[in-house]
Amino acid sequence: MKKVLVIGCPGSGKSTFSSRLSKESNIPVIHLDSFYWKPGWISCSNQEFDQILRDLLLQETYIMDGNYSRTIDYRISFVDTVYFFDFSRYLCLYRVIKRRILNHGKSREYMGKDCPESIDYEFIKSVWNFRKNQRMQIINVLDKYKKSKNIVVFRKPKEVINYFKSFSK
């Protein structure tokens, strides 16, 4: 495991997992949100983001955390391992709301600078509809790479806990 991609619905625990995996494996973590979001929640252009990705993907080792569905197929082609968080919409929505409450007025360390935690109807709707709108696209891409990449799918938080128990051994 040298190049890792962590994907899944917002609120599924990608960033937390990536940070812990980084500590366990001594592989540096790249949180894509910190590259995509400029101060004040201004997104970079597709062209700018694609250039950033090209540079990041050429690094020797990394754990890359972030969904950004437009680029998933491209990013998977560079990695040897993919972790997909395939959790229920209820759990992800609960976590997103909890995160918003706990981080009110603060920018999370994984986020772009000066992007205080926020939530709006469109974001809640995207979390709620993730399984309907993006999950099959991800599964289809993963299926394309199942013979050439190590793919781990987590369907329940307990599986993540058990993974780290076995990882530490």
How would you describe this protein?
- With 169 residues, the chain is α/β, with parallel strands linked by helices.
- It has a single domain (3-168), classed as P-loop containing nucleotide triphosphate hydrolases (Rossmann fold, 3-Layer(aba) Sandwich).
- The chain has helices spanning 14-25, 33-36, 46-57, 72-76, 89-102, 121-128, 130-145, 157-168, and strands at residues 3-8, 29-31, 37-38, 42-43, 62-65, 81-85, 150-154.
- The strands form two sheets. Strands 2-5-1-6-7 form a five-stranded parallel beta sheet, with helices on both faces.
- The longest helix has 16 residues, at 130-145.
- The two termini are 16 Å apart.
- The mean pLDDT is 91.
* Stretches with pLDDT under 50, minimum 5 residues: none
Helix content: 40-55%
Question: At CATH's second level, what is the architecture?
Answer: 3-Layer(aba) Sandwich
What's the shape? globular
Global structural class: alpha/beta
End-to-end separation in angstroms reads 16 Å
Q: CATH homologous superfamily, by name?
A: P-loop containing nucleotide triphosphate hydrolases
**Overall number of domains:** 1
CATH level-3 fold name: Rossmann fold
For the record, the CATH class is Alpha Beta
Defining traits:
two-stranded antiparallel sheet; alpha/beta; five-stranded parallel sheet; 7 strands; globular; Rossmann fold; 16% strand; 169 residues
Brief summary:
The protein is an alpha/beta fold and 169 residues long.
